[in-house]
Amino acid sequence: MRLAATAGAALALPQLAAACGSSDGGGSGSGGVRDELKVGLLLELSGVYAVNGQDMRSGFELYLAEHGVQLGGRKVNLIVEDIGGDPSVGVQKATKLLRQEEVAVASGIVTSSVALAVRDLFDTGKVPLIISNAGANALTREKKSKYLFRTSFSNWQPNYSMGQWVYDNVAKDGVFAVSPDYVAGHEQTDAFKQAYTKAGGKLAGEVHPPFATTQDYQPFLSQIGKANPKAVYAFFSGGEAVTFVKQYAEFGLKDSVPLVGPGFTVEGVLKAQGDAALGVRSGLHYTILLDNPTNKRFVSAYRQKFSKDPTVFSVQSYDAAQLIDLALKKTSGETANQEAFAEALASVGEIDSPRGKFRLDATTHNPVQSFYVREVKKVGDGLGNVKIGDLGELADPG
Ligand code: BEZ
To answer: Sorting pLDDT into bands at 50, 70 and 90, what band is 45?
Structure first.
């Protein structure tokens, strides 16, 4: 099939073909045989967030495996693309999924800058995108869309929820904030600062090392040390979280200056961080140790399939598959009417997730969910994020 010049034009094609009974994006084919459902996964399978992307792939694949590789009663053809955390690659791969593959729905994306870059393609193409990590605030605010959904968080959520807690439990002043210099880095520490200063806290300073290229945090740790802070609030993830947390300990700050932050800094990387992560306290909407039946079943199935522990990234992606499945059950598997499909996604109601039950806000399509404080402790033979507090349910303000 020839590729159309614009996303909007290209995406008229699945609808037309579906009406003729032969589309990937539609419902039943000729002779009543149900067409496969083409689903795109845009993932960072290389680069500093490769570990997150791999967990997201596993989470999605686990849900499919548990449901006979079907969503909404249709066999799934999963098309996985590596976007490497690069916005221009993200646009190229999203365009391929939309125009060439004509997927009915897509999911994934770790990095905020990539999600922002591909947003318009899905919005104008009227193809639902279920973001299963990237937290860019704008995507639930000024850039929200009928066709954009998130099963993860906005960058504001886990960090705003930690501001008051750090003020009450860690330090009333002298907190130094550090995060990589890109949109998510700034949004994460800004949300913390907003709540911490509102509580009455005073910051000792902040610094933003270059994103995805910094390997030696020594100059930044030196700057932090000179500010003589009472605590450090750090957002990093994936490979960067391993490097930063290890170098924080090697630099000698670990024993004198408590390290706190959003949970990403110590999520899915504890084995690589080792004892350098011990004692880190963080806020997040998940820990593998959550004591609910859905999580227990999920953790056991995940371990059995992948011989490793799931993470928040696995859960968010598992729930993206679940969201699509629930919506397609409402439309009897049909996606050809793109508006109706989007409306079904927006109205699935409560989702029974390993993180606990949550729902998508009707306006922002962003999770309304509970947040927890975790602390890295010795658990069995290794390390784990043990829940030490409840931060309550929080929705992005929109
Ligand atoms: C982000 O870019 O939005 C992001 C990346 C890793 C963890 C959390 C957020």
So the answer is: very high
